[in-house]
Design brief:
- GO terms for molecular function: acyltransferase activity, transferring groups other than amino-acyl groups.
- It comes from Vannella robusta.
- Keywords: Acyltransferase, Transferase.
- The chain has 160 residues and is an alpha+beta fold.
- It has a seven-stranded mixed β-sheet with strand order 1-2-3-4-5-7-6, sandwiched between helices.
Length: 160
């Protein structure tokens, strides 16, 4: 008997469920994010955030990205993208990456040239992102303050 694939839904973050995002991030990431981060996730129009629900109601992943304009270039910077360990390899991370790399009504007037992020050196996420066309561009020594290795790798993906 074949197992029916379970539904993965992407939902918006609100002041009602931002606490769930806080718990998810605390579980998934070795670094913590402060109150200002979560306030921005809910209120700042330059932030792009989606929650991933598995089977309709279980929050199992999320992505938080931010629109950035630097040196005449417009980019999306992925601040966090994570899925609970038990729910990895089910296509949830892929759905979140595809969402960020897709088009967004809130930025329809922007010409977004690339998506980029920092990943801790040696992290499995380096392999994960390479599957979606992200390329390792530079190393940033001492990027992380409280975790080892402290080096981050910058990954970039050009958008058409």
């Amino acid at each position: 008997r074949k197992v029916k694939p379970t539904r993965i839904d992407l939902g918006d973050v609100t002041d009602k469920n931002v606490g769930q995002l806080r718990v998810l991030n605390r579980t998934v990431f070795p670094v913590s994010y402060g109150e200002k981060f979560y306030k921005s996730v809910v209120e700042d129009p330059t932030f792009l955030t989606k929650l991933a629900f598995y089977g309709g109601d279980a929050l199992v992943g999320a992505v938080c990205a931010r629109l950035e304009k630097k040196d005449g270039k417009t980019s999306l910077y992925i601040m966090t993208l994570g899925v609970l360990a038990l729910y990895r390899d089910l296509g949830i991370g892929q759905k979140l990456v595809e969402f960020v790399c897709g088009s967004h009504d809130q930025f329809k007037d922007e010409k977004i040239e690339e998506v980029y992020l920092h990943v801790q050196e040696g992290n499995d996420a380096l392999k994960f992102y390479s599957k979606f066309g992200f390329e390792e561009c530079e190393k940033v020594e001492n990027y992380y303050q409280k975790i080892q290795p402290a080096t981050a790798i910058v990954l970039r993906k050009k958008l058409d």
